[in-house]
Amino acid sequence: xxxSNTLALRIVLRLIIVxxxxxxxxxxxxxxxMAPDDAVAPTVVLLVGGFGVLLAGIALIVWVLRQLFxxxxxxxxxxxxxxxxxxVVI
Length: 90
Hints:
Layout: H1 4-34, H2 42-89
Helix pairs in contact: 1-2
């Protein structure tokens, strides 16, 4: 908790989440640009929108896993501190 490795991991995961989210947003923008054009089939626009939703879901999953990882590392640090205190008492 608070080490440089944890800080580096936090920064890298934040960059990954932002990159996936921006990719999802760009995919939605591409779909809206392609939608009014008659040369592009509606199915293609739907597939692009589905891919954007998929990317947004991946970003959400990565964010949830990041939160769970840092919660688990905090819990592990607290457990180690409690073990040390228990060792002193015994």
